[in-house]
Amino acid sequence: MFKARMKFAKEGRARYISHLDLMHTMQRAMARCEMPLWFTEGFNQHAYVSVALPLSTGFSGEWELLDFNLMSEQVPVHAVEALNNVFPEGLRAIEIYPLSDGGMPVRDITWSKYRVTWGFPEGVPDGLAASARELFQRENIEILKRSKRGEKLVNMKTLIHSLELTESVDEIQLTGIVAAGNNNLSPEYLTKAMQQYYPEFQLTDAAYHRLCVYNEQMQEFR
Question: How many Å from the N-terminal Cα to the C-terminal Cα in the chain?
């Protein structure tokens, strides 16, 4: 048995697959392409599969990571192609590699890079881009942040590593690196902050896409 990690994308219709359903989908796909998964022993045998930083339902991403155990001594040849042949629409394996040295531990994930898109079929409202730039340049942006321990007023600016804004005729995109792991800042809070500080703008069409994850030293997580 050895550990392996798969980098995959979850896009299109697949972004509506819940975390639990994603786990079932991964196991069924690996069974269909005869991936030699390792199963626990005992009465209720199950495969070990684990996703690092599961996406919220409705979010998409292209730097998603799945850890699993294999019975073989190496990753099967053409494993990526075999999985992509049986994956449902929107799921796409990018690479699979062994974790011979244990790999980068999931607990070391510190930052996530997201693309947030605000869509406006009738065109971007006047003043919205300027207002967003003004807001996210502030040193203090207080929001009510939810966690397992309840709600707490925090300065979300301390949880943002970097943020860039681009504007087109019918949408605004924010590309930002925000805190992940134990001190996670969901990219939804970028939208919520705008709604809180500039309620005159209606941000009803928002999409969230994860581009990458990093450790504390800003190394791409693998």
Answer: 20
Token match 């996530």: residue?
Answer: 112
Cα gap 160→113, rounded to integer Å: 10
Higher pLDDT, 203 or 99: 203
Q: In this structure, which long-range contacts are made by residues 30-33, counting pairs with CB atoms below 8 Å and at least 24 apart in sequence? A: 30/68, 30/83, 32/86, 33/79, 33/82, 33/83, 33/85, 33/86
Contact 91, 28 (CB under 8 A): no
What is the pTM (predicted TM-score) of this model?
A: 0.93
Alpha carbons 96 and 51: distance in angstroms, whole number? 14
Residue 215 is encoded by which pair of tokens? 């450790």
Q: What angle do CA 104, 115, 8 make, to 5 degrees?
A: 45
Q: Are 96 and 70 in contact (CB under 8 A)?
A: no
pLDDT at 102 over 70: no
Give dist(CA 137, CA 179) in Å, integer: 17
